[in-house]
Amino acid sequence: MSLEITLVEFENTSALDIELSEKVAKLLAADIAATGSASLVVSGGSTPMGFFHLLSQCSLDWSNVSITLADERWVNADHADSNEKLVRENLLINEAHRAQFISLKNSAQDALAGESGTEQALASVGTFTVLILGMGDDGHTASLFPGAEALPLGLDMNSGRTCIAVTPTAAPHQRISMTLPRLLDSQQIIIHISGAGKHQVLEEAKAGDDVEALPIRAILNQQQAPLEIYWAK
Question: pTM here?
């Protein structure tokens, strides 16, 4: 039995971006007030761009916020396909320029060789305050892709791993991805999607339980962290 899932629908992406940025800022501020620090995990792609810009303008003690990514392509931070580049140019600006960014990519030759370094970089961060996940048309989230050789390890709740190297079967670049147990170690998870196609994939995922076919099901069917879905028509 999974936790109750809250689906919040919006008429357009602008309305979603406004409400999501306000919600995340409040959650971060509350954690800073309670513990002295907060952490935010975001995802790449075009969907969160408007949200990033609005969140970056929120008045917050950003110097006590750590920001990282749910997954990253194993490319340099100045590469056009780098999620870190996207975050630095669209979120770590305005007020949020004072936040600490934790890079998933390191100097290792490939993602497999870089796993331990990435795990060490994240070791200082405890339970995440907020995790924002996207979802692909194939049902992947983070870089937990259906059909990927590393998927079973990524979904293993008892692996003891926080990050794994992933080679997608139908997407470019090696990836480094947080594992399911690390993703679920969050105070609040929000799936951020838009469009009728993503809603259809979501409904398909909710209707079944084959996690390897649609890895997003591992997030939908878990009982560990509160989950909300923000969807813009």
Answer: 0.97
